[in-house]
Amino acid sequence: MPASGPYPPELLRTARLVLRPFSIADAPALAELIAAERPRLLRNFPRTVGAIQDEATAGVYITLRETDWHLRTAFQYGLWLPGRSSRSQQCVGYISLRDMHWTPFDVPKAELGYWLAATHEGQGLMREALPVVLQAVFGAVGLEKLFARVLPENVRSSQLLLHLGFRRSGVLRREFRCGDDGTIHDIDYYDLLREEWHARSAETA
């Protein structure tokens, strides 16, 4: 059972983005985004792509993520370009924190995952969004550690993690099966400790 404790804010903002959990009303937008990005996402996010096939399954996916949030087993933010109303916001990706460890025998940690629509890559949006999420989970939630698993070929993601202060700690051998061709690959492991994040934040404040 997950431990009781603090939650991250349900609404975060950056200069260009609104970050908030998906609600059931977002099912059409999420289904449309996944459909547009499916061929590109399949390699790195096979579970998400497999789970969301249409608007109905997007609704199921969102309901499960709402339960995760309530139980503190995972937190997920949709990334939205602001509009005049919530209905006019445009979803361009998400940031997720999953596989939370909360028992008294665990180090409080989570796996970080993220992706951005191809049409919005190269604009610095993820570099803008991730720090506010990291600040929330290392601050309000009190995680001790975040880690990320990245295919070696994904140079852009690796560079982003290093920019945020993550360290490449090793290689997990034969760890990941790609969704596009079913091949099994070694994967690079990156991690970031809470004290490292706070020290870095103090230096750049």
TrEMBL record:
Q: Which GO terms describe its molecular function?
A: acyltransferase activity, transferring groups other than amino-acyl groups
Q: Which UniProt keywords apply?
A: Acyltransferase, Transferase
Protein name as it appears in the record: N-acetyltransferase domain-containing protein
Pfam families per record: Acetyltransf_3
Which protein family is named in the record?
Belongs to the acetyltransferase family. RimJ subfamily.
Task: List, alphabetically, the Gene3D superfamilies matched.
Answer: 3.40.630.30
Which residues are in the N-acetyltransferase domain?
A: 17-196
Organism, per UniProt?
A: Solirubrum puertoriconensis
